[in-house]
Known about the structure:
alpha/beta; Alpha/beta knot; Trp Operon Repressor, Chain A; 5-stranded parallel β-sheet; 3-stranded mixed β-sheet; 34% helix; 17% strand; elongated
Amino acid sequence: MWRATVLTLFPEMFPGPLGVSLAGRGLAAGVWALEARDIRDSATDRHRSVDDTPAGGGPGMVLRADVLAAAIDAVDAQSDRPRLVMSPRGRPLTQARVAELAAGPGPLIVCGRFEGIDQRVIDARQLEEVSIGDYVLSGGEIAAMALIDACVRLLPGVMGKLESSTDESFSAGLLEYPQYTRPQLFEGRPIPEILVSGDHAKVAAWRQSEAEALTQARRPDLWAARPAAKGPAKGESRKTPKNATDG
Ligand code: ADE
């Protein structure tokens, strides 16, 4: 079973939002497992201290290498699971990395707090630093939840294939086209004519061009890097996503 193990100073934050909706139903159904472990349980002194002042001076506190290493080793001694640490310094998380993580046994995720964690434990335990965006959260827990949520929704049995097409569109390097539903007229704004025409080919072409326009305008980086730029021509049919086996 796919399992996320989270090392945190705030295990009570979990499952939190992962306990409701799609992820929560999967968790309750045993499709995946979540283990939140308290780093403080690996402290060795009588004050159970986990952090100390930064070597060289400066503000804040740094998570101790020995305590965190002991917490990692207690989980992970002989496992080949990916070991991640959530950090704004990390490589930005992508849907491609999410898909890899979802396809594996599930990660061990260290959540940083304070000013950071001792670099030696990152090196010695070969932690992969992962960022969820260029902004600073007060700790790695919410970032870990975002990563886990993104993985869990790809697990077989968590979501149907309809929704998976969204990932496919994102993986193809485009933002999603706009969606509409009833009422037909909302505050004087009608649903675009084409979408109520019943012409499926025209609908598909309209969605493709909306997605392209949106991506060009909002994400020139994605637009420049999109696989479609080198791969299949516009309008060509796309492959079915690997995980779309559970209807
Ligand atoms: N911890 C604090 N900020 C973060 C971010 N942007 N991504 C991942 N982990 C973090």
